Amino acid sequence: MLNWKACKKHAHEAMTATFEVILPGLDERRAASVAQACFDELDRVESEISSWQEGSEIHMINKAPAGQATPVSMSTLTCLSVAKRMHVATRGAFDVTVGPLLAIWRTKGGQSRTPSGKDIAHALALCGIEHLDIDLETHTVSKNAAGVRIDLGGIGKGFAVDEMARLLREEYDITQFLINGGSSTVRVGSAPCELGAGGDTRLVNQALSGSGFGVKGAHIIDPRSGKPVEPSARHAWAIAPTAAEADALSTAFIVLSAKEIQQLCRRQAGFGAKLALGKKRYRSFGSWPN
Predict the structure, then answer these.
(1) Whether residues 15 and 82 fall in one domain
(2) Quick one: 169 and 31 in the same domain?
(3) Close Cβ partners of 75 (under 8 Å, ≥ 6 residues apart)
(4) Which single residue of 137, 167, 205, 211 has CA 20 to 30 Å from 161?
């Protein structure tokens, strides 16, 4: 097994996080050049799927009136398609249209607030992937109601990691790599790597993502109820074939019950989960490696 800690890391700031690329087996000059190509790809993806960058495709979709089709790139189309699939797989626990709910639980200044039941009901009516028409033939996306807002914060970093991995494989024929997206989502290529996630976890051609109250703060909204999840010591890690899937799953695992997580991992081959339940107590599901 490679000594990943001894390998040189190449780092880049994007999506309010530090991304790292490790390319074992390449000389330093070649590794630096390939890593820079990965970071250029990362910047391109961010410019298209960011919810906050003026002129991004997601920003334009959010600003567009209901019923207006917005032309988008293949990256945005693919990311939203994966988000839709994960919304269905988690039965609504992962939802990129949760924006209206996030907005009502905070003031414009970012402070916590408690909305009325009427506000929650109104926001819930604007949430759900069924409000998006993702047209794969015309490469357009439209909303069916005013006020629907897309936020890819729960899947965007993972998707960017996948696009970097795709570039390495397709353009450079590189299969041995480790890509770290903000220390919360990691994708490993064909060289085995052990990562800490409630103990050592061995990955090969897989992705790992983690979520928890200590990472994202205490205001985690359950898209199904429209209300915050009770703060707890729980941390969740997800394993999946791709970083986007793992990113979405770890977000969903915070709001799903242990029984729901177990059922999800049984339904979907290649998905695994590990929960930290406090006081060094862990429980794993699905394809999580022993």
Answers:
(1) no
(2) yes
(3) 44, 45, 48, 49, 159, 163
(4) 137
